[in-house]
Amino acid sequence: MSKNSFQNSVQSFGRFLSGMVMPNIGAFIAWGLITALFIPTGWLPNEGLASLVGPMITYLLPLLIAFSGGKLVAGIRGGVIGAVATMGVIVGSDIPMFIGAMVMGPFGGYTIKKVDQLFEGNVKSGFEMLVSNFSAGIVGGALAILAYQVIGPVVLGLNTALAAGVEVIVNQGLLPLASIFVEPAKVLFLNNAINHGVLSPLGIQEAAETGRSIFFMLETNPGPGLGVLLAYWIFAKGMIKQSAPGAIIIHFFGGIHEIYFPYVLMKPSLLLAVIGGGASGIFTFNLLGAGLVATPSPGSIFAYIAMTPRGALFSVLSGVVVSTIVSFVIASALIKRSADRGEELSLDAATTKLRDMKGRDLHTEKTAGQKEYNADEINKIVFACDAGMGSSAMGASRLRKKLENIGSDITVVNKAIEEIPQDAQIVITHKNLTERAKKAAPQAEHVSIDDFLQTPAYDMITNRIKAGLEEKKTEVKAEKKESEDKLSQDVLQKKNIKLGLESVERDEAIKMAGNLLYESGYVDEDYIDAMLEREEDLTTYIGQGVAIPHGVGSAKKKIKKTGISILQFPEGVDFDGNTAYLVIGIAGLGNEHLKVLANLSELIEEDETAEKLRKTDDLDYIYNKFTL
């Protein structure tokens, strides 16, 4: 098995474990806060409210885990059966059965899935609901009995052996060695699998017995990452020095630890710094008896303080400070050593290297034959990571702002890999997670990145969308112009332009303009009378030798389509004391005639043009002036 395949397998298994816990983090935090506040040794002791602690950890939390595990395997139906089956191990033991829930939940989902497959297509019409409900009830009940009689005792023995092993490790002072595995695994994006898949269940069980647990602190400690970022800020140069303060805020206060992973990967020897910081922090936590009441998720210093039990704030913060100092000292020595050797540690070099890799970053990671969406086809971009929080939220925010700045309304969201929506056109993931993302969303175009902060992918996608928007605007303008030109041509036909006419009375001129509209199919014959009535109420002479007779009000109903007619009287026609040389009959449906009138207003503003319109014998000249 290749290294990548093994890593993907480990990540997939870890994702499955953490997938049972992560959807329920809010419930764990609620239990932790109630524990920290209301138990006899809490911040606000309250006997009544403290009675919530036991039932929540005994029943609620294991059942939530079981439901999530069953749902991962067989949807809601699998979740229900998983929860029913887990009641067997819960009732059959005297300790919180989190391991039992992580076993029975998926097992219940798998069992009902197989049973449903046996019945699929073999049930007579009209009996589907009966078979569905009773098969679920029978399977759930049977699994609950099996769990109580057989699986529960086995899991209880396994749990006891595991607890004894952990106790030996803790008593022998070997727990700090866990950092040798935990810290490198975090940088390889196994952080959620380790924390929520392994350490959180162990921590919850210990917290139920002792009121706190150090296991909540092994992976979530922000100290090691903070030390590395501080060292870069003080001793590095160029862009990496400038970017470090922002990364510190996101990491330490925001709790998004993924932000410092690229800084470690940029110089792999810094793994020694985070391992040293992690080990020293665990040693300090263990020495001072520190522990949290629930997992701090995300691993922000604020979450750490919120999950700290009464009287343990000093021990908790001491471990964070010690781990930061140790990590900082080791990282500083390594960074300064590299500087003395002339090695380039600035982010400028890393960015240049990434620019050279742009093509691979966006294209070579694609599967053969994978569709590349055109900019106008893209309406949803998903930034995915292992948990759907942390790095994916940060990446989505950065990309969203860039797209908003160019006026794009494309939806940008962050999701866990297994929750990528099927209507996503582009999915962005860290290169170590791309293969899993492809399986989850085969219809999407996948973009792999190395660095959440400095990746060129954001700018490349933004420029691609921007180019598409500009192209779309150009097309829209061209279509609009073509439509307007066509509309103008439809509104005015050459046969409706009459030049060099002899002067007549006003009403006769209006009738002549109206007849042209009627004969061309623009209006009903009655519209001509409406034009005459309008002229009696108010003259339609508008100046510069132009009159525009037309009907209004109820006459609009007599208009079939927008059109105009143009009559030229070189000697003029009297319109209530004003001489009109151009009589333009108008039938306006909606606003379609406004472009013609807009052109007219521009034309007659120029004395020279208005004069030529009154006297020209060039029909094409007038037609082009009104339609182009």
Automatic annotation (TrEMBL):
Cleavable signal peptide: none
Entry's EC annotation: 2.7.1.197
GO molecular function terms noted in the UniProt entry: kinase activity; protein-N(PI)-phosphohistidine-mannitol phosphotransferase system transmembrane transporter activity; protein-phosphocysteine-sugar phosphotransferase activity
Highest taxon in the source lineage: Bacteria
Domain PTS EIIB type-2: 379-473
Protein name listed in UniProt: Mannitol-specific phosphotransferase enzyme IIA component
Lineage: Bacteria, Bacillati, Bacillota, Clostridia, Halanaerobiales
Keywords: Cell inner membrane, Cell membrane, Kinase, Membrane, Phosphoprotein, Phosphotransferase system, Sugar transport, Transferase, Transmembrane, Transmembrane helix, Transport
Domain PTS EIIC type-2 per the UniProt entry, residue ranges: 13-344
Top EC class of this enzyme: transferase
InterPro entries: PTrfase/Anion_transptr, PTS_EIIA_type-2_dom, PTS_EIIB-like_sf, PTS_EIIB_2, PTS_EIIB_2/3, PTS_EIIB_mannitol, PTS_EIIC, PTS_EIIC_2
Self-association state and partner proteins as the record states: Homodimer.
One Gene Ontology cellular component annotation held by this UniProt entry: plasma membrane
